[in-house]
Design brief:
Blueprint: H1 14-19, E1 27-28, E2 31-32, E3 34-35, H2 46-59, H3 69-89, E4 97-100, H4 103-118, E5 124-128, H5 137-146, E6 149-153, H6 163-169, E7 174-180, H7 192-201, E8 205-209, H8 221-224, E9 228-232, E10 243-247, H9 249-254, E11 265-268, E12 273-275, H10 289-305, H11 307-326, E13 331-333, E14 343-348, H12 353-362, E15 365-366, E16 368-370, H13 375-380, E17 386-390, H14 397-414
Parallel strand pairs: 3-15, 5-6, 5-7, 7-8, 8-9
Antiparallel strand pairs: 1-2, 4-10, 9-10, 11-12, 13-14, 14-17, 16-17
Helix pairs in contact: 2-10, 3-10, 4-5, 11-14, 12-14
The protein binds pyridoxal-5'-phosphate.
Pyridoxal-5'-phosphate (PLP) binds at residues 39, 102-104, 132, 134-135, 180, 184, 209, 211-212, 232, 234-235.
Length: 415
């Protein structure tokens, strides 16, 4: 078996990184925890846990409204995350970054607010065959309401989108193209720069679901020229219940508010309400203040390690895992795209994924089994479910070895 140093790029000390994640230091069913479910949610480093705790211990107050010291501190800390997110996503200004609950809410905000105003009967929305339910259902709901049409970019056997087919779907009726940057079920990294360019040439807007890209690779919304880009805090080592929606200023300004309430208004009378400026126009009510502050700490954490170094390390880990799993007889990887990140989805002939997951759990190994909120992907590959091991910056080759050993035990038990 290879050693850690054989995959770690220079300066990437995974053992030191693991020290930052208290949850990883436990035994499950008497075995050291091997956490391979970061695509569902990533674990949190001390930096995030401490930032949330500090907020509640020292600064806790509602934001944007108070003149008192605690409210000013809370507001500053919360708004500082917007500045950090601006650097993380390379947006032009921080005012085009809207705090939302997560990727799901980011997509729903756009489908509701932009969609209601701009989509008419006979218009078309394009998504892809590998979308998470979050990037299918909101568009389906919009299409149903507006009598618009949902069209789907197909993929090949490796789990790569077929761009020639996409080109054929684009037309004068296309209003929006919404695709994942990285697929949570397959790990495919989509060529979103090209997908966006093709959409723009057809006069359509684009929304990129960045939930699985942000934890693993550098994202630059300006370089991509994305119209909307959305991500979840809990997948980038931050807390749940907070995420970011990026939108181009011109588009956000032209959109009606998503929800009404406090903070999103400038003046309210019973006759008429005027709305606040960006980004507050889209942020009604008391937000997840602690979550926002925790997310800021998470973005700092990733930035300090270095996004490119994280990508390089995970790439090596993925290659190692792909090779190791391929040697298990009867195991078939689902999703073998040439450009791939952090996900090893597979089936083993004759053994139900649920049984695989249960036996692995008894050995302390946490994987996910099921459809991964992407039932159409399962249908396409003619499998009811897969077992998915998903990687993050704290995983090691030793953990992949443990997974392989665990799968050998599964095979012994079920054959
Ligand atoms: C997790 C995920 C989502 C949904 O994110 P939430 O945080 O649950 O809102 C959407 N798309 C992809 C690709 C995901 O991995």
């Amino acid at each position: 078996m290879s050693t850690l140093s054989s995959v770690a790029p220079a300066g990437f000390d995974v053992e030191k990184i693991r020290e930052d994640f208290p949850v990883l230091k436990q035994k499950v069913h008497g075995m050291p925890l091997v956490y391979l479910d970061s695509a569902a949610t990533a674990q949190k480093p001390f930096a995030v846990i401490d930032a949330i705790r500090r907020f509640h211990e020292v600064d806790c107050a509602n934001i944007h409204r108070g003149v008192h010291e605690l409210s000013q501190r809370s507001t500053a800390a919360y708004e500082e995350t917007r500045s950090k997110a601006k650097r993380f996503l390379n947006s032009r200004t921080k005012n085009e970054l809207i705090f939302v609950r997560g990727t799901t809410e980011g997509i729903n905000l756009v489908s509701s607010s932009w969609g209601r105003k701009n989509v008419k009967a006979g218009d078309e929305i394009i998504i892809s065959a590998m979308e998470h339910h979050s990037n299918i259902v909101p568009w389906q709901m919009l299409c149903e309401e507006k009598e618009a049409k949902l069209r789907v970019i197909p993929m090949n056997d490796r789990g790569e989108l077929i761009l020639e087919e996409y080109e054929k779907l684009l037309g004068p009726r296309t209003r929006m193209v919404a695709v994942a940057h990285v697929s949570n079920a397959l790990g495919t990294i989509n060529p979103v720069r090209q997908i966006i360019e093709m959409a723009h040439r057809a006069g359509a807007l684009t929304l990129i679901d960045g939930a699985q890209a942000a934890p693993h690779m550098r994202v630059d919304v300006q370089a991509l020229d994305a119209d909307f880009y959305t991500m979840s805090g809990h997948k980038v080592f931050g807390p749940t219940g907070i995420g970011i929606l990026y939108g181009k200023t011109k588009l956000l300004n032209a959109m009606p508010p998503y929800q009404g309430g406090g903070d999103m208004i400038r003046t309210v009378t019973f006759e008429k309400t005027t709305y606040n400026d960006l980004p507050y126009k889209f942020e009604a009510g008391t937000p997840n203040i602690a979550g926002g502050i925790g997310l800021g700490a998470a973005l700092d954490y990733m930035t300090q390690i270095g996004i490119d170094r994280i990508s390089a390390y995970e790439h090596e880990l993925l290659l190692y895992g792909t090779e190791a799993l391929s040697e298990i007889p009867g195991l078939k990887l689902i999703g073998t795209a040439r450009e791939k990140a952090a996900v090893l989805s597979f089936v083993i002939e004759g053994i139900h994924p649920h049984d695989i997951g249960t036996v692995l759990d008894r050995q302390g190994i946490a994987v996910r089994t099921g459809h991964h909120c992407a039932q159409p992907v399962m249908d396409w590959f003619h499998v009811p479910a897969t077992t998915r091991a998903s990687l993050a910056l704290y995983n090691t080759t030793a953990e992949i070895d443990a997974l392989v050993d665990g799968l050998k035990k599964v095979k012994e038990m079920f054959s």
